[in-house]
Amino acid sequence: MKALSLFNENFIVSEKLLQQYQLASGLKVSDLPEDQRRSLCSFLGKPFNSHFRVASNDRITLLAHSNFRLPDFERNGTLKRH
């Protein structure tokens, strides 16, 4: 019975990962418009020179703020080479 329980748990995890992959497929990195960035800084209590990363597709928009420098990406979402 334990093997069946373990199988079910692993199946649930893999199903969740597949759903996340499908949700996030095709994400494109973009810049946050200046007025939205300033509003977000004000709302979150962050300095007005804070930088946010935005990635979106037709199903989801992800917004990230970090205290450390994130790598630069090209407009097509690929890592910028220096």
Can you tell me about this structure?
By secondary structure, this protein is α+β, with helices and mostly antiparallel strands. It has a domain at 28-68. It is 41% helix and 16% strand. It has two helices and three strands, in the order αβαββ. The chain has a three-stranded antiparallel β-sheet with strand order 1-2-3, with no helix packed on it. β2 and β3 (61-65) form a beta hairpin. The protein is elongated, with a radius of gyration of 18 Å. The termini are far apart. The mean pLDDT is 83.
Topology, number of strands? 3
> How confident overall, as mean pLDDT?
83
- Beta-strand share of residues: 15-25%
Total helix count? 2
How big is the Rg? 18 Å
Please state the oligomeric state of the protein chains shown. single chain
**Helix share, percent:** 40-55%
> What is the general shape?
elongated
Largest beta-sheet characterization: 3 strands, antiparallel
**How far is the N terminus from the C terminus?**
55 Å
Class inferred from helices and paired strands: alpha+beta
Q: Looking across the biggest beta sheet, what order are the strands in?
A: 1-2-3
Order of helices and strands: HEHEE
Low-confidence stretches: none
Task: List the defining traits of the structure above.
elongated, about 80 residues, 3 strands, alpha+beta, about 40% helix, 3-stranded antiparallel sheet
Provide the fold topology.
Elements: H1 2-24, E1 28-30, H2 34-44, E2 52-56, E3 61-65
Antiparallel strand pairs: 1-2, 2-3
